[in-house]
Write a structure and sequence with these properties.
- It contains two helices and nine strands, in the order H-E-E-E-E-E-E-E-E-E-H.
- The chain is of the alpha+beta class.
- The chain has a nine-stranded mixed sheet, with no helix packed on it.
């Protein structure tokens, strides 16, 4: 009887700890202070300059929420306030470029200088196309909310750098 009681109590304790790990409070609707999010893509213009996309999340003036992290298109990004517009958060994502050549040699000293490839961190959320999850703080409490239907938009800067008479 004692082994059964001991096993049952150990299982009960383990289950209670596992529930604490899933304590992320994910809200399906964003707070009212959050506007319609959108993203734009960019390219460096020359080979090796890179490419990527930027996610923009507008907020109402004097909102009490502070956003810091976003999960979008399978990646994790840092949200920063745009210096020219304090009511706009931006996350910048760089697409991994072409892999660089590695020096492979039987003498390990000749391999010195090889860079470790950047690994994309696995995100803890299942997201559909056009969805993002944002980590934010309001009144000292940390929470998550989901943004749906994020649309791709062309920015004015992209249109100026891509005249219609140039084909890519």
């Amino acid at each position: 009887m004692k082994p059964f009681f001991f096993s049952f109590s150990a299982l009960l304790i383990l289950m209670s700890f596992s529930n604490c790990a899933n304590g992320k409070q994910l809200q399906e609707e964003p707070p009212k202070a959050v506007g319609e999010a959108f993203y734009t893509t960019w390219t460096g213009g020359v080979r090796g300059a890179g490419s990527g996309f930027n996610l923009f999340i507008p907020v109402t003036a004097n909102s009490e929420i502070k956003m810091d992290t976003v999960y979008f298109r399978g990646r994790k990004g840092v949200l920063e306030i745009e210096p020219s517009n304090p009511d706009l958060y931006v996350a910048r994502f760089e697409t991994p470029g072409a892999t660089k050549d590695f020096v492979m040699h039987k003498d390990p000293k000749k391999e010195f200088g090889n860079e470790v490839p950047k690994m994309i961190e696995k995100i803890p959320f299942e997201l559909a196309e056009g969805e993002a999850v944002v980590h934010y703080t309001r009144n000292g409490k940390e929470k998550f909310f989901r943004i749906k239907n994020i649309q791709k938009k062309d920015s004015e800067q992209v249109r100026l750098k891509n005249p219609k008479n140039i084909q890519h």
